[in-house]
C-alpha cells in the first residue's frame, strides 16, 4: 500500500523538538522523500536529524529574521527544487499579566510567532509551484481566556486569521501564474491549502520546562480526557492535513485539546 506522503517534500520550522520533531518523524514514517527541519541551534538540529533518520536535513534558521528565511529558501530550492508541505510550527510563549508586558517581550513573541510565519509562507510560495499543503500551529489559547497569556494568545489568534485570509488569496492564485482566471479542472490538483492545528496542553519542553507537578495536575484536572497529550497526537493530525486525504479541508482550525475548550 502507498504511504500517504509518499514522494512529497516537507519543510518544518521549529523541527528540533516537541511537536515539530514528532511531526518530522511522522512525515518520514508516512513516506516523505525529504524533510527539512529548522531551528536556531545547529547542535539541536544535528541531534534531531540523527533521531529522525530517513531523509532529514537540518538547516539553521531563526524565523524572526527574514534574512535567515531567505537563506533557508535558497538551501531548499537548491536541494529539492520544490516542496509539497510547509509546516510553520516554530513558536515561543512567555507569560506576563497586563501591567507587566514589556516591549521586548511583545517584540520577541510577535516576531517569532507571527512575523516568522508571514515571511516564511511568503518566501516559500514559489516552491509550492505544484500546489500543496501549508499547516500553521496556533493554540487553543487563541480562543480561550487564560491569565498572563495576552501576548501569546494574540499571536495565536493572528495565526488563525492568517489561514483564513490566505485561503481566500490562494483561491485566485492557485495554479498557473496567469492571474486571476477561473480555475480549470486540470488545475485543481495544484491548489494550495492552508490549515491550522490548535493544540491544547502537550507534553513538550515548552509546556513542561519549569512546570511543577502541582500545576501539571491542575491543568490535567481541567481536561475532560484527564491528561496532557503527547506530541505524536498532534503530528498525526498534521500528517493528515499535509496529505491528499484532507483534500477538501481548507482554512480550517483543527483543535486537539482533550475537550478542554468544549466545556
Ligand atoms: P518546543 O519548545 O519543544 O518547540 C518549539 C520549536 O520552535 C523548537 O524546535 C525551537 O527551536 C523552535 N523555535 C523557537 N524559536 C524559533 C525561532 N526564532 N526560529 C526557529 N525556530 C524556533 O515546543 P512545542 O510545544 O513543540 O511548540 C511547537 C508549537 O506548538 C509552538 O508554536 C507552540 O506555540 C505550539 N503549542 C504548544 C503547546 C504545548 O502545550 N506544548 C500548546 C499549544 C500550542
TrEMBL record:
Keywords: NADP, Oxidoreductase. Pfam families: adh_short (PF00106). SUPFAM superfamilies: NAD(P)-binding Rossmann-fold domains (SSF51735). SMART domains: PKS_KR. Residues 8-185 form the Ketoreductase domain. Gene3D superfamilies: NAD(P)-binding Rossmann-like Domain (3.40.50.720). One of its GO terms (molecular function) is quinone binding. One of its GO terms (biological process) is fatty acid biosynthetic process. InterPro entries: KR_dom, NAD(P)-bd_dom_sf, SDR_fam. Belongs to the short-chain dehydrogenases/reductases (SDR) family. This is DEKNAAC101441. The lineage of its organism: Eukaryota, Fungi, Dikarya, Ascomycota, Saccharomycotina.
